[in-house]
Amino acid sequence: MSNLSLFLGCVAPNRYPGIEAATKKTFSKLGIELDDLEGASCCPAPGVFRSFDKTTWLTLASRNIALSEEMDDDLLTICNGCYSTLKEAETELKKDSGLKKEVNEKLFETGHEFRGQHDVRHVIEYLYQNIGVDGIREIVSNQLDLRVAVHYGCHLVQPLKEAGSGLVTNDITFFDELVEATGAKSIDYEDKMMCCGAGGGARAAVQDATLRITEKKLQNMIEEQVDCIVNACPFCHLQFDSGQQDINKNSGTNYEIPVLHYTQLLGLAMGFSPEELGINLNSTNTAVFIQRIKEGFVTA
Amino acid sequence: MISNIERCYQCGQCTSVCPMGEQEQTYRIRRFLQMEKLGLETEESMVVPFIFYCTTCYKCQDNCPQGVNLVDAVLAIREKAVHKGKMLEAHKKVGQMLINYGHAVPTNTDAMEKRGLLGLEERPPTVQASIEGLSEIKTLMRLTGFDKLVAESEVEEQLTENAAMVQQADFTQQQVAEEKA
Ligand code: SF4
Ligand code: SF4
């Protein structure tokens, strides 16, 4: 099996670095040292750049994959948007040799080549398939006593469906299973598979409407009295976390649900402190949540 | 014909599950597909800026009885608009970020401070810490013509919600009537 390089994307390193720190720490604990992907760029974002100019999108995506291939690594992404872009680019280039040749003609100008001998992996899918729910259960040292609203995100589900992974069924559970391996309980809520609202460039184009989509999800989660939201994507994370503040400011509401990326939840269950995982660095105040974690919201 | 939209028989099941359509009366995915199918380029103002509101959530596609690849269609309609020089101001800015920094969302002082607290390098080991990497990205965007495409696009006014509602009022009423029928 190949080694793994960590593809950071934009939002994690530049807005929510806690997700980056949590990924490195949890993988290290699993005995996997992730290689830095030096010189990587934006994936580029699937909804915007792919729709502006598909050739540019494919060319930059293939460069990112090529950088990882040059280290003989599979590429690990921690973001649904990056996964959507890089997986789709990988699939198209692996099956269409003419397209691959075209892209490589451009990449050669920068000294790179897309070979197509490695895979693009999403952290959730990787943990589920390569470590396994039992593997996670074994490594967890603190049982988290939390009610969790799991948010899959559209661009985790769709690429897995297209790849025929078998993980996407009518009764989709792989992410919930990983959450429950930490001792937490995944709580069902209405329209659970609905979008966070942010994707496709909509957040930039029509922010108010995207926040109304988000607010509807938040209300459905609150209805079930969850302790936190757990996602698999820094962009969903941003929409839920900083989105709550935007909604509060615009409509005088008082949303205050802690938002965690799965790697941060896993980090807590492995015994890392909330500060080491950057859970205190969200826009939405997480002080109460952190206090409860420290006071034994976990059982050792 | 883009994507496989010729398979669409206008049942409206896409619009009925669309979260953007629920929040934004002007956003009617079935309508956009129909206009595209009929080649109604002259009514483009009804498509731009609205086609850029799609969150690409795939809910419409999952619900389409005809297996239409709606998201591919949305992206292709957008690409045509962009290649005709029509971009939203916010998206043009995102494009310029990519061209200048290699990231759609580049770092800022707040992020650098947070990284410090977490014991991470101030600048992530991406193109933001690699002059060579950044110049490669710029070379590639010159080769594909992306720099020009963004620079030369005229910015489409991002309609305020009210203006959009007024502009679309008649059209929406007609749409609602059609969908009830
Ligand atoms: S659901 Fe499919 S067939 Fe029905 S209107 Fe939408 S695209 Fe056309
Ligand atoms: S992909 Fe776009 S058009 Fe389809 S349901 Fe989602 S927001 Fe609506």
Please describe what this structure looks like.
The complex is a heterodimer of chains A (300) and B (181). Chain A is α/β, with parallel strands linked by helices and 300 residues long. Chain A has two domains: 120 residues, Glutathione S-transferase Yfyf (Class Pi), Chain A, domain 2 (Up-down Bundle); 159 residues, 3-Layer(aba) Sandwich (Rossmann fold). Chain A is 53% helix and 11% strand. In chain A, the strands form three sheets. Chain A has a four-stranded parallel β-sheet with strand order 2-1-3-4. In chain A, strands 7-6-8-9 form a four-stranded parallel β-sheet, sandwiched between helices. A two-stranded antiparallel ribbon of chain A has the order 5-10. Chain B has two domains: 79 residues, Fumarate Reductase Iron-sulfur Protein, Chain B, domain 2, CATH 1.10.1060.10; 92 residues. Chain B contains eleven helices and two strands. The chains are: A alpha/beta (300), B mainly alpha (181). Chains A and B meet through helix 1, helix 2, helix 3, helix 4 and helix 8 of A and helix 2, helix 6, helix 7, helix 8 and helix 9 of B. One iron/sulfur cluster (SF4) binds next to helix 1 and helix 3 of chain B.
Count helical runs of chain A. Answer: 14
Note the gap between the termini of chain B: 28 Å
Query: Compounds present?
Result: iron/sulfur cluster
Separation, N- and C-terminal Cα atoms of chain A = 33 Å
Whole-number mean pLDDT of chain B: 83
The interface involving the most residues is between: A-B, 64 and 66 residues
Biggest sheet record of chain B: 2 strands, parallel
Q: Count of DSSP helices of chain B?
A: 11
Class from secondary-structure proportions of chain A: alpha/beta
Helix-strand topology string of chain B: HHHHHHEHHHHEH
Q: How many structural domains are formed by the residues of chain B?
A: 2
Shape summary of chain B: elongated
| Largest sheet: spatial strand order of chain B | 1-2
Strand content of chain A: 5-15%
The count of DSSP E runs of length 2 or more, i.e. the number of strands of chain B, is: 2
Classify the secondary structure makeup of chain B into a structural class: mainly alpha
Give the low-pLDDT segments of chain B: 159-181
